[in-house]
Amino acid sequence: MNIVKIANSSLEILFDFNDAYMADLNAFNATECITHEEYEWRKLPIAGGDYQVRKQCLCCGHVIAQARKQSEEDIFLHWTDPGAQGRYQAKRMIERDAIMQKHARLQAKRGVIASYHLNKKLRDRLFVYDGTKQGKRRLDAALGVGFG
User: For the chain, which residues make up each domain, given as ranges?
Assistant: First the structure.
C-alpha cells in the first residue's frame, strides 16, 4: 500500500493495489509501444554536422535500428524529433496517474480505507465512510464531489 494524494482535493489515502486497479494497469501496460510498427526514415544529426538515416517510431519517438546507407533522396527526409520520446513518456505517465486517481477516488468513495485531511489543524482527523449519511457527506465534501 502507498499513500496517494487525490487530485483536486485535500485527501490522501492508503492506496490498495486491488484486482480492479491491477487489471486496468495491465491493460494500460499492454498498450505501450514496443514493436514500433509505424515508423519513418529520418535524418539523425551526428558529430561534424553530418547525419545518419535511421528509423524513428511515429508512436513513441524511439530511434530504431542501425543506420542505413545514405542516398541522394535522403536530403528530402525530415530530421528526427528529439523531443518525441520525452513527450510520449510524459503522456504515458499522465495516463498512468489518471488510472491511479480513478481507483483512489473509488476507494475513498467506497470508504474501503481510511483517508485523512491535509489541513494542519485537522491532520489527525480520519475521514472514513462508516455507512452513515454524515460520514458520507464529510467524505464527499472532502473529495469535492456530490452525493446522493
Answer: 2-32+86-143, 39-85
pTM equals 0.69
The strand pair at 63-68 and 39-45 is best described as unpaired
DSSP states of the chain as a string? -EEEEPTTSSEEEEE---HHHHHHHHHHHHTS--S--SEEEEEEE-GGG-EEEEEEETTT--EEEEEEPP-GGGGGSPBP-TTHHHHHHHHHHHHHHHHHHHHHHHHHHHT-S-EEE-SGGGTT-EE---SSHHHHHHHHHHHT----
Report residue 96: phi and psi, to 5°.
Answer: -65, -40
Three cell numbers, residue 4: 496517494
Summarised one tens digit per residue, pLDDT across range 66-112 is 999 999 999 999 999 999 999 999 999 999 999 999 998 888 877 64
Q: Could you tell me which of 143, 82, 61 has the C-alpha nearest to residue 109?
A: 143
